[in-house]
Amino acid sequence: MNYHTPSTFEDAARLAGAAGGVTRFLAGGTDVLVQMRAGMVLPDDLIDLKKIPGVHDIVQGADGGWRIGIAVPGAALGAHAALVADWPGVVEGMELVGSTQVQGRATLAGNLCNGSPAADSVPGLVAAGATVEITGPDGTRSAPVEEIPAGPGKTTLAPGELISAILLPPRGKAGGDAYLRFIPRTEMDIAVAGCAVNLRLEGDTIAEARVALGAVAPRIALAPDCAAAIIGTTLDEAALAALDAAARAACSPIDDKRGTVAFRTEVAGVLARRAAAIAYSRAKGE
Amino acid sequence: MAKDELGETLHLVGTRPLRPDGLDKVTGRARYGADVSMPGMLWGAVVRSPHAHARIVKIDASKAEALPGVKAVVTRADFPEGLTGENWNLQENTMAGERALYDGHAVAAVAATSALRAQEAARLIEVEYEVLPHVIDVDDAIRPDAPVIREGAADATVPEGSPPNVARYIEFGHGDTEAGFAAADLVRERSYKTEATHQGYIEPHACLGQLGADGKGEMWVCTQGQWYIRQMCSSVLGLEAAQLRVTPSEIGGGFGGKTTIFMEPLSLALSRKAGGRPVKIVMTRSEVLRATGPTASASMDVKIGMTKDGMITAAHAEFRMQGGAFPGAPVDMALYCAFAPYKLPAAQHIGYDVLANRPKCAAYRAPGSPMGAFAVESLIDEMCRELGLDALEVRLKNAVKEGDRASYGPTFGSIGLVETLEAAKSHPNLAAPLGPNQGRGIASGFWFNHSGETSVSLAISEDGTVQVSVGTPDIGGSRASIALMTAETVGIPYEDVRVNVVETGALGVNEPTHGSRATFASGKAAVVAARQAIAEMCRRAAAEWGIDPEAVEWANGAAQPAGPNAGKFPPMGIEEIAAKMGSTGGPISGHHESVPEGAGASFGCHVVDVEVDPETGRTTVLRYLVVQDAGRAIHPSYVEGQFQGGAAQGIGWALNEAYIYGEDGRLQNAVFLDYRVPVASDLPMIDTQIVEVPNPGHPFGVRGVGETGITPPLPAIANAIEAAAGVRMRSLPMSPPKVLAAIRAAREG
Ligand SMILES: Cc1cc2nc3c(=O)[nH]c(=O)nc-3n(C[C@H](O)[C@H](O)[C@H](O)COP(=O)(O)OP(=O)(O)OC[C@H]3O[C@@H](n4cnc5c(N)ncnc54)[C@H](O)[C@@H]3O)c2cc1C
Predict the structure, then answer these.
(1) Best substitution site from A40, A49, A97 to test ligand 1's pocket, by max atoms within 8 Å of Cβ?
(2) Which domain holds residue B692?
(3) Helices (H), A96-156
């Protein structure tokens, strides 16, 4: 196995593009190293991204948007008061990952690129309208987060491509977001269902909304019908019931050791209602 | 012995000094099973069956053997033939013979110069299988047309014409149950199921074994019982027991699961084949979950008759349990314990020990008792609800007392069930207010407690400090407790006693630390040994003073004349006697070996408050109380720790732990991510109350406390869930999908 520590994203992309065998990038390593120890993945090239300047930084742009380095661990997101104030739902998704020890290492980019349909930080990013900056052998491009997952363990990134930053839009006024997941325990578990809601109010009425569901389909995805169910409402009982139904309709989960189809579907509706209520009260500044 | 009779004179028993293993454990200095290494050591790896049931057609190790650094490969062909009974079972479980009997069953093992090389070699060993039909669930396994696990497995107890996988049958009872049911106002019969669970100890099995061509061997191993390891390895490999010396390591949990062998004989067999080089084997978590432990799973029918005012008139139980591909499911224990807290005019018990394609079950904390309690304590709660009776009062009304005949036969001596129930009744947790979707559950539990073969030596050091050698590994604080009892007896400070857990060469045969016996049995033997040493020290003083040894008595760590007539000498302290023992007759020690009589039973009562989320079926444990009779708590913190640990494991068993098998019979959750033991944040601080009804069979009144605590949680939580959510869960685990489905079914009528 070859271990690389490139100092630019361009070098990292060149290394990855030229590598012939099994390649992995190393951010926090909380997926990669665990998979290596279990014998699930034995990479020929391991490309450590943590030596690239800027990857540990969280920077707010002039427009109020955020640029998050790809090696920023969950614990650093949680400790960043201004980011938490803007995007509490994104941060709480990432903070659910693992335990204190895992939080010291695990990253948003790693969570996204590991490709798990149950990744906890991804629904929040999707609902927030986050984009990723992608560096590849042919240059740089950007894409919405929801275009990255491609089914369990897979991404749409081309060979040699990697994520060089995560970008969150400006929060703006009267907005709020939230993420909830269901696990049978209180921590150290994988989401059986998850839901993130991001919305913006005009007065008491929801003017804009984005809803994303996790762990109930092969890919974490936007659920436009869920958003439609609450836009133009004050999140009254009827809107919540419509949201619940839309969330259940958007599910196409699997039956496995972690949950049944019926359970995942029913709980997705419950989580959508509860997450929407939290996002709404955050938007109202409560 | 009345409690206060002893209490007034005790200085150390009942106090909470620092644990002797504390500094080692928090600094990482404690040596666990995997921490022992030797010059020239090899690493072992095990090839395991991926099939639940398969004929082993061919094993080809040529590619592995060609790999540089590979020193030995063993298969069943390297083990002696002709074993019978449990020795054959152990050998067959250690290494499959003609057939692999469960997913994870060992079929070959390899030793190489590094762990990675050994794993690589194991992957290169080619095993050809012919897959056979398998059966996992106990109710499927007992069907007449089930795949046959082993022809001729039934022993003499099994009635003619029984289904092929029934290996043992048990039946006992007393009284006229028909008359009892006829006299009842309410008779209910229900069926209950519990899942197999793993002991879940943090430390995986690990050993380092060395065996020469001359049949002399050594083993360093993480175990609850070094003599069991010695005897079992010797039987399986055809060795002479005295030629194998077994040293136990510090132990990171056992709960019964480390009272038997798994890969230990493989390290010895590999070592012998590799010219006597020591071989270390450390299991991964997935090996632990696939191939060690677990407990049995159970399917149970219980029938109880009760009068309107809550008197139980008769009881009937039929239990079916599978303990894997070998006989040994604790169906007998489950039946003995099931009705133990109740005085019954009539009871009948029937049990089936059934084979299935799962790992061989091992002991797990009060083996069988939690399953029986789940069925019986649930049904009693259901009947109390139906009759509008208070569940605690009904338990008090029917409680067994000293002199009552136990449901399993013998007559109870001094027991503390009533005291335990009364203590629970007056505990503040019983008055705590409950909110919406919250409910309270109560259940009792019982374990006999065991004594067993015990050998202990004690020796006075040159400076008057005392060393005690015991054969029972310390899994729950026994070193601290034995040091306290020894120091109390000798009249010296706790810090002046060191208790060592020693290897098989140092003492006579000891049973493992199992059956909640270490503090009872090794503690009792240590007190007898201490008294012998005291008698000898009195003789030395008498000789020096030139008086009769009978005229000398021992008090506060010193010999002194027994009275004014004995002569006038200042007390001679233990330091003084020890300093000159070389010239007054040589070393001073004490030794005791026996199967101590009088292990007293321990009853417990648990009270739990839960909240059930009606929309997700998730149960949160809000408040948990353990009340249990400890006889006398030698070191109360350790006793409380045992109470809390039992409750924590029981909560896991009740709510989320389960073996999940696919259609193919493979275990799907062989990692702690999906084998869901509770994490710390899942549990409230578990409240404890120690009841002390002294056991007359122990010099300080000790009853074992390690096991009873896992017995009441399963039904207590089921009872609380019904109180909170209005649904009765009769099968474990009571996981969110199952509870939500029950809530939905109840809602939809
Ligand atoms: C004990 C434990 C508990 C966990 N609990 C949770 C949980 O509750 N919820 C949850 O969602 N996850 C959980 N995880 C999984 C894991 O921690 C997360 O997925 C984490 O966010 C991964 O981030 P990382 O930086 O450690 O990724 P790494 O392991 O470094 O990388 C993961 C994958 O992403 C790729 N990658 C990394 N960076 C980039 C990049 N910049 N561009 C392209 N590809 C990249 C790597 O090649 C690799 O395939 C847990 C893991 C552990 C060990």
Answers:
(1) A97
(2) 368-449+600-747
(3) 100-103, 108-113, 122-128
